[in-house]
Amino acid sequence: MLHDLLFGLSNDQALLAAVLLPFFGAVLLVLVGRWPNLRETVTLLTALCLFALTVSILGIHETGEVQKLVLFDVVPGVPLAFSVEPLGIIFGLVASGLWIITSLYAIGYMRGNNEKHQTRFYACFAIALGAAMGIAYADNLLTLFIFYEVLTLSTYPLVAHKETDEARRGARIYLGILLSTSIGLLLPAIIWTYAIAGTGDFALGGILDGKIDEALLPILVGLYMFGIGKAALVPIHPWLPNAMVAPTPVSALLHAVAVVKAGVFTVLKVTVYVFGVDFLAGTEASTWVMWVAAFSIVFAGIIAMTKDNLKARLAYSTVSQLSYVTLGAMLASGYGITAGALQIMMHATAKITLFMCAGAIYVATHKTELSEMDGLGRRMPWVYGAFTVGALAIIGIPPLGGDWVKLYLVMAATDSGEKYVIYPLILASLLSIGYLLPVVARGFFGNLGDRQEPAPQFNDALPREDRIKAHPLTVIAPVMTAALCLATIFMVEPLKHLIAPLLGGH
């Protein structure tokens, strides 16, 4: 019956259901909130159904059928509308697929840490996923902007979840930066686009060629790239590390499932469907933002190395890694767009693994500082093993996903005549080794806190009774996503095939 319900939908029905299902799930979560087991069952079922819908949308897209749904005009002549295209499918699959694993993890984390307000947490989480789906399938700039703002507002209570002074301060910074950039920069860019192009509908090849003075084009590029605050370019990045006061499942949502991926997805979508890759490539309008992205990659990597708090270290790593997508887009090359799309998928699986591991360590030991974690790898081998896989994927050790991203970025830099961009990429790789591998090394080889002797070799295993037992779901979930990190090796070619129609002759 469930199969018939999900896969028997028409094109329009499947598209609308994918956007509305998480919102419906949020309402249901509030209604059943007093029964924890039922509430968590609803969360998992909603996540599973959303992923099934997203897979069905991919199947319809592969047949060549057009999937577009126009609901009503928000303002005269500008409708709330949804459509399906390759980048949206990638973002939808990443967000909906990882929601399943994040939900499993959140159950273990919230219970293991005895968190309060769990119903509010799960409901806001579901609304955030609904907003992410609206962004993924937006057919025009106004629809995207509406759901972009819904995502910001729905995640504010999640950042402030602990309701401490520190949490409220972090949430205010989060909300202030994201709203000020979107309303102060992104919205004017959208209005400007409608004014000069006569439309905000996404169109392959862009809608601005021949409609804007090329002398003004760098300004519009800057308004979009900095107005998309969720992409966390320096200097509008502070919202992201300040949001680390939230519970770890929220950090996973911010860094992997929805928020930052919504940002870099929007960067790619605007580049491909508003500016057009060929139009940007024929100008130098994006060059200055390209160098801002290159600087962001290196700057955030340097800051990450100075952080002893593990979540803060991972947060600055995210700022660095997100800028790979912006860099790829601003190189205005088919290789760059390919690198950006790969980075959305690869970084999501790797970074969610790292944050889940950090959360598992916290739930089991209440340790947050790297300097306190010596020897924990031998007490929590599964957690640290998963962290190792995620770290190697971020660093880009062949043949893991990060290696492919950097390869395509190098090809994009060469193709675009920007060979000097390769040097920041090399430096960033060295920096990622410097801020990620010490976590692994100290965990497996560092002194145990109560024994004060180093492990003479990697396989100096502890007896099972000496191991730290975290909540099983906080261990199972990162092991699953670590396996996905390995599986991304086999997803490169299918992803390239999916986005090939966007690249034309590139």
UniProtKB/TrEMBL annotation:
Record organism: Pyruvatibacter mobilis
Q: Which InterPro entries match?
A: CPA3_Na-H_Antiporter_A (IPR050616), ND/Mrp_TM (IPR001750)
Q: Which UniProt keywords apply?
A: Membrane, Transmembrane, Transmembrane helix
The main location class comes to: membrane
Q: What is the designated name of this protein?
A: Monovalent cation/H+ antiporter subunit D family protein
Q: Does the keyword Transport apply?
A: no
Organism superkingdom: Bacteria
Q: Where found?
A: Endomembrane system; Membrane
PANTHER family, per the entry: NA(+)/H(+) ANTIPORTER SUBUNIT, NA(+)_H(+) ANTIPORTER SUBUNIT A
Q: How is the protein disposed in the membrane?
A: Multi-pass membrane protein
